[in-house]
Amino acid sequence: MRTQLYLSRYGLVFIPILAAMLLAAINYDNNLVYIVLFLLISLMVVSVVYTYRNLARLEIRPGHMWPVYAGGTLRYTLVVINHAAYPVYGITFRRPDAPPDFRVICESVPPEGTQTVEFIEQVHTRGRFHIREMQVASIFPLGLFRSVHNVRLNWEYVVYPQLKGPRQWPSSEPDPRTQDDGHFRGGENFYGLRNYQQGESQRHVDWKAVARGRPMMVKEFGSGGMGRLWFDWRQLGDMDSESKLSQLAYWAVQADQMGVPFGLRLPHQEFPPLSGALHLQKCLTALATYSRRWP
Amino acid sequence: MSWLCDTHGDQIVRVTPAQVYRLLVCFVISVLPQLANIPVWLAVTTGVLILWRVQIEMQGHPLPSNIVKLLLGFALFLGVYVEKQTLAGKDAGTALMVGLIAIKFLELRGRRDYMVLTFVLYFMGMTALLFEQSMSVFVYVIIVCSLLTVNLVGLHLPASEATQSASFFTLRMLLQSLPLAVILFLFFPRMDATLGLNLGGESTGLPRSIRAGSFDSLTENNAMAFRADFAGNPPPQSPDLYWRGFVLGNYNAATNEWTESQYLMEANLSRNLQGGQVVEQHITLRPHAKRWLFALDYPIDDTWNGQAELRSGYVLQISRSEELRRKIQYVVYSSIGSHPTTLSPAMEKSSLLITGEDQINRKVKDLARSLRPPGATDMQAVTNALAYFRSNNFSYTTKAENYGSDPLYEFLFVKRRGFCEHYASAFGVLMRLAKVPTRLVAGYQGGEYNPYGNFIVVRQLNAHAWAEVFIKGVGWTRIDPTTMAAPSDASPASPNAATPNNKPETRQPILSRFENKLTPDWIKRLSTECRYRWQLVEEIWDYWILSYNPEFQAELLKKFRLQSFAWELFILSTATAFIATVVMVARSLRWKVTPEDQLQQIYNEFCATLEEAGVVRQDWEGPAKYAARAAKVLDHAAQPIKKFSRDYAFLRYGRIRHLEPALEPLREKLVLVREALAQPETKTQP
């Protein structure tokens, strides 16, 4: 990581003031004004070193990133590691493409300590994005100079489509493999056994097994109709494509929250019905990165 | 100021109330020395604005709108213009600066305003030095600058550690910046240039001309005019302490006024001095906005370093074109007790000239005639005149006397009371009427001897005027007619260098006379003691700081034959000092190299090696992932890379108590990686 140094804009304001002092010193041939002037200049020079070393031994690592839907807030963290034996102050972070009021500051990192910095950004459009670079800067201690270094992150993130949609859930399709009639009844198919826990309802206890001398077990029933619920692009024929994506994403999240397995059909892609976080993530990513020219 | 908006979001940083209060305190401190220079209404307004700002901050009110600020600014300009009739110049400029800063505080909101205000306050604090160059003011200004710097550092620190860390940082940075500042101070070429700026300055001092009442403002003025150090030699005896300022050779009877004569070039000034004893003086002169310098009668040459030239009439005049607006120190040699011996015909003529002689009262002319009966010599005329003053009950007073339309006549025949200018002027006129070549000299006489520092402090109340007559065979001779006055009232003419109070009680108002009687003796002695000690400190200060002037710098360079390389020398020395400072500061701040650092360094070398081979480590990649990726790409060196990375990861993340012995084996593994990479791929394939 290479640290660059610039005169900050405050420094640019300071220079005319020094020049005015120089004029006064020359005009009046005033040694004391010269001393004050030279002291300030030297202070400026010394501050360069401090500004530089404030960044010189920092390491930046990506931290955690939370999922985000368009129109929401993207939240992620970076970990700032200070390898130096001195505290470091006033580190600002900036993405080169961010708006001018984007500002995240890490006020201080103790010597040889770490600090997690949280970033919050508004995102408006779905898609796959990168945090390619993070500009780490500091103007400590006097604000006259700015040391900057650019950390290559190449950190990919996906903004899922916005969750909204007016449509009712689609009706389930019949699945030829299980001869299901396509109605979601929920909790009728035997799924497995698990240990009975104190205080639980005894309705589903496997009494036959208890009678055989086994420990008390509870019969669990999974939701029925595996693979019958399809969220299909073509079902939403009359909507524009962004709304379709939003609607599909909304359904998918709803289904995931209810624990219902679902499948997703897009013009060029198909995800067979499944449940679970990984499935949801795959589906949402496909929705986020959907484009007509795909693949 | 939108260009000032930084791309790092600084403009959205708000300052805390505590920071605002601190900056307000700095403002008040930096304005204090200027308080005497700004109008009362402005001082009051500034105070009100400051209180208003504090109130806004405490109550959390919004800041006033732009219109309010605009109106305030307009009112400020109007007020200053009405008061001073101008918007330029020292007083108006100071007033405007103070007022505008106070108004600017009303829009202090973010970091940008804060920093700009801080910078302006640096300048504001510095201006005190333009008016007064004493050590106390300098220390004051340095304190102001330090406080501002502490503030500035605090702005960039988290609020919890602001005060303590900021002071610590400032102190450290100030100390580290000292060497470079010293180099800059020594080598920065002093330009002999005025830039036409004139903010004004102190201008107390001798008047330009002498007439009745022209010294009135000085008789009670206790301010220091200059200080004379005798370079280790004993100071001259009191009768010789006549500090020559300038010569007044023209007398105008209509206005009863003596004015400065034209300075003719006079050759061989120093050789024409007869007799006397040479005395070296180091004189520190405060600015008096005139062009003359002072020295004991008679200066024999230009000042050392060439600040001033010796002109005809043995007047030292500043060589530069401008008037004296800074405190300076110069070295001059005088020959005390000597007499200039030549009088050119042109000068003799001008020394007898009275413009508008017919306006002089007849009685005065009669008196002059009686002083020089036919056949009497010049010397006899002088003696007679002095005798006239002695025997006719003339007395000395420092109180302003109201003289009517003919002050000369009134003084000689009616009131017979006056200050030195009355005596010198009247004596001069009588001598010229009696055809004795005469001129008046203005300067100072006496002074307070400081036994600790072996110097004499001359104050404004030592201002004096005396006459010089040309006596054939002797030369110009100093005659001080004031000494003929009755000493009952006061005795300024008894120079008493050895006693501190040579202007005793009579000079002071009644109240302070009582005060003097009531203060016990030991307090008086103590205060005298303190004054002496403080004068000594100031003397040392002036010697070290003020004596380093363009002339001295040029002299120093000339000594090493470098006078024509001032700029090159400056650039060279500054660059050296600059680099030295950066290196020294960086070194002093350098982290101790720990085994962990060495470990990191070895790993960095490893990464660099792989990068050369074409596998660049991403910043987030851990050692294991990176090694796996590199091993895949650099197949022929896969084994050493994996081995190295495993060891490194173990040392880096494992619980290792003694890291140091493990470093060398790791280095060896790195060498193995390099060797493997250096071998051509094809060799390892089969």
Tell me about this structure.
The complex is a heterodimer of chains A (295) and B (686). By secondary structure, chain A is of the alpha+beta class. Chain A has three domains: 1-160, Sandwich (Immunoglobulin-like); 163-186 and 224-295, no CATH class; 188-222, no CATH class. Helices cover 27% and strands 34% of the residues of chain A. Chain A is built from five helices and 14 strands. The two termini of chain A are 37 Å apart. Chain B is an alpha+beta fold and 686 residues long. Chain B is 48% helix and 13% strand. Chain B has 21 helices and 18 strands. In chain B, strands 2, 3, 7, 14, 17 and 18 form a six-stranded antiparallel beta sheet that branches. In chain B, helix 1 (17-31) runs antiparallel to helix 2 and helix 18 packs antiparallel against helix 19. Mean pLDDT of chain B is 80; it is low at 488-508. Chains A and B meet through helix 1, helix 2, strand 2, strand 5 and strand 9 of A and helix 5, helix 6, helix 7 and helix 16 of B.
Q: Which percent range describes the beta-strand content of chain B?
A: 5-15%
Q: What structural category do the secondary elements of chain B indicate?
A: alpha+beta
How many domains make up the 3D coordinates of chain B? 3
Molecular shape of chain B = elongated
Poorly predicted runs of 5 or more residues of chain A: 179-186
Helical proportion of chain A, percent range? 25-40%
Order of helices and strands of chain A: EHHEEEEEEEEEHEEHEEH
For the record, the CATH architecture of the largest domain in chain A stands as Sandwich
Shape of chain A: elongated
CA radius of gyration of chain A is 31 Å
Annotation, overall tally of beta strands of chain A: 14
What value does the average pLDDT of chain B take?
80
Largest sheet of chain A: 6 strands, mixed
Report the top-level CATH class of the largest domain in chain A: Mainly Beta
How many alpha or pi helices of chain A?
5
Terminal CA distance of chain B reads: 70 Å
Per DSSP, the total helix count of chain B is: 21
